[in-house]
User: What shape does this take?
Amino acid sequence: MAENAALSEELYQWLSGNDLDSKQYTAMLLLSTTEDGWPHTAMISVGEIVALDPAHLRLGLWHGTVTTGNLLRTGRATLVAIHEGVAHYVRMRLLALPDLPQALHPRQRFAADIVHVREDVAKYADILSGVTVRLHKPDEVLQRWEHSIQELLK
Assistant: This one.
């Protein structure tokens, strides 16, 4: 088990915002805390997050969701990503970014500073996958993701 405050090179490259077509089948979990103190779990795709560098991420989430409200209120979240046989637990401090008036797909954008990363592997087994999905309209979704990633980089 390795711990630090930056993404591994492999996870950083995977969250680069590039080659979304090959990553469309994988979802990650985004954990936040509700007003009454309970954990809240949401799925997030590679079209909603991008790594600026190994210590900084940007997220673009739908307005009005429980997750978005939790992040606006607490400024904290944990990303759980299974990649290349490793479970990555990424704790983040988040700051809301201004809306982009000309956004094609308006989202609540966040800048995230990584404060802690734990990588976990099982000695007795291989982690084969995390959450996998099949997009209903891949061409449409991938195009939206491309736009969203470009808007997150602004």
